[in-house]
Design goal:
Blueprint lengths: L17 H20 L3 H6 L5 H29 L1 H20 L4 H29 L5 H25 L7 H20 L19 H4 L3 H23 L1 H5 L8 H27 L2 H19 L5 H30 L6 H28 L2 H20 L10
Length: 403
């Protein structure tokens, strides 16, 4: 009788480089400041005597400018590399955020928030290019999850700090956010001096990946669709509509807006601790299908909430569904671009799909709320997530072709 075969030990997971963790730390600082601003932004806009739709336009203006500047930002990354564009983007957003705190009327606030979108897309696309270039091929899911976790911890801490500082008024969070962005830029500048040479740039010997090349990949095409619905539902509607919805339930106060966003972020963070590794082990496609399906159902149910406690529970689980989507989508795009060629335009196009959802979603949802009510707005957002899952049912797995 032959002896039982010994199971070969699992290959050790490649460690993530130090520079990835530097970006994670900066993401925490950025998101903590943003977490202060997000719950109060709609209320701050409405303090200038405008309606719900006008308040959601302020949220969308930031994403609109991100969308308009995405392609130029991607070209800057391909030309100069990720690090300098990242630092410049952070400083631009810091200036626009500080100016928002000093806005004298609604139109000034709209202008300053919109200008901040230029810097935001610069550091978003450049950070994506840095993660693609620096993460090991078999660690892209973990790298994306770690980077997302930095944002999420900040999103949890930010609203909690904001609630404690509520007595300072609606303008104070913008001042704090501007300072946080300057700190983040200083951290990245000081700890990533050697990163520049590691990120590919456009050259005659190694031309930039074109959109025509990227669009030949079915997984990339599906990522554009899921990026749009993720931007609409889990990013745009969550920030612009849920805070307004939360304060209407059972006479809840402004604290409910921050608590609801924090519940989503906590559910997202707890799931991200495992979903990144699952993306690298199981594949991108199964996680995307599960996240889009679960998120769609939960988003519909959010609109049926009758009490803040119910909304908090549903937001927690919806955050878990979103955590399956984020690292898987980022890994798909990284698989397509690879780490040998500049791919700023391809990365920017994907980010544009997300930003387009963030632009259209809040405005369309605001109109639906004004005419039909909150329940219908959440039903629409949930239906889009479900449609995104159907698109991935017909898409290929990208992990097997990663370079």
């Amino acid at each position: 009788m032959a002896p039982p075969s010994k199971r070969s030990p699992a290959a050790p997971r490649p460690p993530l480089p130090r520079e990835i963790w530097v970006l994670v730390g900066a993401a925490f600082i950025i998101a903590m400041g943003y977490g202060l601003v997000a719950p109060v932004l709609p209320a701050y806009a409405r303090s200038f005597d405008v309606g719900v739709t006008a308040a959601t336009v302020v949220v969308s203006a930031f994403a609109f400018m991100r969308l308009m500047f995405a392609l130029p930002g991607g070209r800057l990354v391909s030309r100069f590399g990720g690090r300098p564009v990242y630092l410049a983007g952070l400083l631009i957003v810091a200036l626009s955020t500080g100016a928002s705190a000093l806005a004298a009327d609604y139109w000034q606030l709209l202008l300053f928030r919109g200008l901040g979108g230029i810097g935001s897309t610069m550091f978003t696309v450049s950070a994506a290019s840095l993660v693609v270039a620096l993460a090991p091929v078999k660690g892209r899911g973990r790298a994306s999850a770690a980077y997302g976790s930095g944002f999420l911890v900040g999103n949890i801490v930010g609203p909690l700090v904001g609630a404690a500082l509520a007595g300072l008024g609606l303008r104070a969070p913008f001042v704090i956010y501007a300072v946080a962005l300057v700190i983040a830029a200083a951290v990245v500048a000081g700890l990533t001096r050697e990163v520049g040479a590691a990120t590919p740039v456009r050259s005659a010997a190694q031309p930039e990946m074109t959109m025509a090349e990227a669009m030949t990949h079915g997984a990339y095409r599906a990522a554009l669709v899921s990026g749009f619905v993720q931007g609409w539902s889990n990013l745009g509607v969550r920030v612009a509509i849920i805070p307004l919805f939360a304060v209407t339930l059972g006479g809840a106060g402004q604290w409910a807006a921050g608590a609801t966003l924090a519940a989503f972020a906590i559910g997202n963070l707890l799931t991200l601790t495992r979903s990144g590794a699952a993306v690298d082990r199981i594949g991108r496609r199964p996680l995307l299908i599960a996240g889009l399906l679960g998120g769609g159902v939960l988003t519909v149910l959010v609109g049926l909430s009758w009490h803040v406690s119910v909304l908090l529970v549903l937001s927690f689980f919806a955050g878990g569904g979103s955590a399956l989507i984020q690292p898987a989508q980022q890994a798909v795009v990284a698989d397509v671009v690879g780490n040998q060629r500049a791919g700023g335009t391809v990365l920017a196009r994907f980010q544009m799909s997300v930003d387009a959802g963030q632009i259209v979603g809040p405005i369309a949802s605001g109109l639906v709320v004004d005419h039909l009510g909150y329940g219908w707005a959440f039903a629409l957002a949930g239906a889009l997530l479900l449609l995104g899952s159907l698109r991935w049912l017909r898409a290929p797995e990208s992990m097997h072709h990663a370079t």
